[in-house]
Task: inverse folding
């Protein structure tokens, strides 16, 4: 839908129509008193490539169609269920993903893995490579961490979720990871998206702190376009003026995503909360709004954690936490997968 | 806590100390290598009046104490329970406030009131005076609406929640209202806050779309300072970059408010949702995060509504809606009051 | 432009068309593969009253026309010039409005008025009634302040800009004020807008910290609709995630407003800056982006100011400040009015 | 500065003090009536590693010192001037960087390069690898584009600014680029920051759309920590609720950055503007607020541009644009470098 300004000439209108038809679109012109509107119907991809907003006389371009396709619910009305080593996420299967923010050492990793496995977690998360705001803070153990995660999986059976930061690490990470995480800061790192679009493991895609719901879906479309439609979306809080929490958890977006896409949508309440007392209420709310899973951080001794200490749930309290969230999962007619 | 810049002179430091002591505060100076820090301990009110940030040499002023007092949980660790015509909100009593966005006519008002009463609502909401973004839209029936609300209360027994917009209407509004609402756009209309601080009816104070949690609590402090501590806080969505919903419902702030204040905190999911399909998931999430009530809009025939048509729940579906939310209320150990 | 979802039935489409025609609009239906679009052409006011978004089958309503009319540049392509006691703002006339944040006492007011008059200011600003976030801070001298402003005008000849907070003060304020300010927090206090729409003095309307450009123009439309088109718009910073300044001064909006409306647009850099060292760079940028004036705060002894001490320019430095800004005014082809 | 909650025990306070001392910091305890405050003085790096917020009893941690060091003005009070092939940016040298959004073909690239060179631009920008929100839009010519840029430099003498997206392209990009750009979406791609920290060419670091000023400076610190202090910072607009422009250009942040860092700060007005009519006013404002340069997009025939068509300045109008901005540069006491 192209709106021509009130001062647009007949030539300018004709010019737009000609270019639309060249691009294979059907163009219909409606003349109003204050504006002329051109409706264009054609292939999304062809129209997306036309720089209509730069044409003389054009005031605004209002897209009617959504810019994503493969990830849209229209294409696939049935919800996608992703299965990893026997654990499921999607539709009525709820994923409880837990583990340390960062893999720090063998003892911390195994201790946490055992605690969350015993409490009923369905996957183990743990950071090997950590993007940190300050260059003076701990950046993760790197490849060594991957070995510790492998060991934790062997002992507990929990599939591993870990973040891929660097396209040069794809081989190493997928050698261990069962689900490859793309972190919030890399949501629009399109080359990384293309890389994980070509692997055959599920991708957990976190929403960037300033990404719109549509941008998140477009990022998922990048992955899907390369052939990998095993994508789990994750809301983790956006940046707003409010500073009483670290991020504003946008649970309304979860409800919108459930309408817009067939992909499973989970929530990470830990980063938004920033403090462990807020993790449980936010987790409950995430489940109640319709999330297909949550991802939370846990540590045997949070006060010694090298990263995000304040928000990690003590491993020995994780069982109680899991029981509380399971009640809401059941109320929502889902089962921990 | 006053941070003096690295270039602050001894005179400038001394000057701050003298002014603090004049204001009755105790001032202690710590000299660091890169900054000098002055700790001031004194009456919040006295210190708030000192323009410390304008003093020469001062780099930053970091307040340690919260700027609110009467509404703070520290002052009153027990949660406030507000009772209106036998209905309660606060602590374990959950308020289900429902009704039309705007009172349009007798039939619509009574029909909605009957439906929400039958479904178990605890209060009836309805706008008599409507603040609207455009001067070309319906602005409410005004005083006539108050009479219709009174009639609805007589028939259903439900206490009335309605908004006060104009300080010249205080008498008229409190003559009918059981709970006086201060709308989001008036959250920092301090003269209106002072007016309702002097009445003896509960106040429902909605958070402004760009107000921080602290500013909301300060607005409540304005009301409390005048003597009225019967205040219900209401989260209804904030303005952010995200546009897939009308507002970003900030449920994290509800969890923070429950920590910070003894006042009941409710949520209005309708305005944030903007569409009725999203009202139920947001309402569930609000309850799960710990809200003491919700306020939702309902209309016998939403498509004929003169205001916010898209987000109103059809009156004949309200019973089902109420049953769904009641399950979450029960799970959270609360009872519909 | 009404977009019907892909599942909309022929009846639902017909229903929308019928309602549009009842409202006097011309409706044209275009059937696409993925959506049906109904174009409605009619009176803005009639269409604004139709709750189209609530109709069954409707997915989205995309307005083509701007919702404001009287303040739109289309209606009046020549820029409005507002004249007050011989001083002009608008088109090539630049307004330099200065004075204390708040009128504190006679000496401070007169001293500041003399300094800014001597430096070439064209109007004197000063707050009589102050909206303050905390109830424990100074709220202004009220009616006494108005008398001091009147005295300052008598001595300096500068027209007075002062804020109206309470509809019950209209008479008192317009008795003294030459320009009536509506503060940022009251930008959507529609009853106050209607009040100043009925007076015959210019109105200075500040943008709310979370108001969009369109909402600001709609607020101006409220004033204009009542008959008063002497409106000066003022950008003063919006709320964003960035906290290094008090507000994010949105100078891009000034450029947009200059396109959208014939009304003069000024900028208040003091509140956004929050510190006096930033006032000059922001003032320069405001002029360079095309503002028709600036409004800044000045005080004889900022460190004793009862309000916003950190951002006030010392009165004895105001002459230098005025010289600096005058250079940019001249470069932009404007003259201090 | 660590604030212990009012309920903190003596043991908890002692525990914090012990851990601080273990980390080599000096800790001083002040007991107030409502809170206990512990002041810690020590090495920034050591303190940054302590998870103080996770300790029992700790309510808040208020950092007094800035978390960046190498890029801070304190460390190097003289402004950094960066020289590239005889062109300078920083202090009184103003950089005028112009060129196409994306390198599309030989003719477009050379034609634009000639036009901007003739108009007095000091560097040529051009994208070889383009991060695009949609996978269905043009992603850049890649390595071929680099050759075209090399040819444009040979003909015009203008140094080349181009973006590095992929750590695997470092060699290829620095083989041609004179200044390596890190795009807004990669501002917190820490591995890319580390890569460009190890090269010996200047880095142009764009602020992320949701990055705070402090986060931008921390990103620069990542580069500097690896040894490369030739960094140009670039403001290009942030995400806010306002949608009348593509981004909200945060010119206040430029004024803050000029205080905080010795690095040159430039502004890209094109992306925020989104439309070419707004580029000139925003460019003027950027210069007036104190920027050390601007970066703008130009194209021989914008309506045929494959990327950001609406905001590119036609190459044949660039001379006039350059004359307009040069006047503001001169007024600010700078010279086009």
Result:
């Amino acid at each position: 839908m192209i709106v021509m300004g009130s001062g647009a000439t007949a030539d300018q209108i004709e010019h737009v129509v000609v270019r639309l038809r060249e691009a294979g679109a059907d163009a219909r012109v409606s003349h109003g008193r204050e504006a002329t509107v051109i409706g264009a119907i054609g292939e999304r991809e062809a129209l997306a490539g036309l720089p209509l907003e730069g044409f003389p006389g054009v005031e605004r371009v209002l897209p009617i169609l959504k810019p994503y396709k493969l990830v849209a619910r229209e294409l696939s009305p049935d919800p996608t269920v992703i299965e990893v080593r026997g654990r499921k996420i999607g539709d009525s299967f709820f994923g409880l993903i837990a583990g340390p923010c960062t893999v720090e050492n063998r003892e911390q990793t195994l201790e946490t893995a055992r605690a969350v496995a015993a409490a009923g977690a369905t996957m183990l998360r743990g950071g090997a490579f950590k993007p940190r705001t300050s260059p003076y803070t701990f950046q993760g153990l790197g490849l060594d961490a991957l070995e510790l995660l492998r060991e934790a999986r062997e002992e507990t059976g929990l599939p591993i979720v870990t973040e891929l930061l660097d396209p040069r690490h794809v081989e190493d990470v997928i050698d261990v990871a069962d689900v490859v995480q793309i972190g919030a800061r890399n949501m629009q790192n399109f080359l990384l998206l293309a890389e994980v679009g070509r692997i055959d493991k599920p991708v957990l895609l976190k929403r960037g702190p300033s990404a719109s719901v549509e941008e998140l879906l477009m990022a998922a479309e990048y992955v899907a376009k390369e052939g990998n439609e095993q994508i789990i979306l994750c809301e983790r809080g956006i940046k707003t003026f409010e500073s009483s929490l670290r991020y504003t958890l946008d649970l309304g977006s979860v409800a919108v995503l459930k309408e817009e896409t067939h992909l499973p949508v989970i929530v990470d309440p830990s980063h938004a909360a920033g403090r462990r007392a807020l993790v449980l209420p936010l987790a409950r709310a995430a489940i109640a709004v319709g999330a297909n899973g949550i991802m939370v951080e846990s540590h045997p001794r949070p006060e010694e954690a090298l990263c995000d200490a304040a928000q990690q749930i003590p491993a020995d309290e994780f069982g109680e936490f899991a029981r509380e969230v399971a009640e809401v999962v059941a109320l929502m007619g889902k089962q921990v997968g």
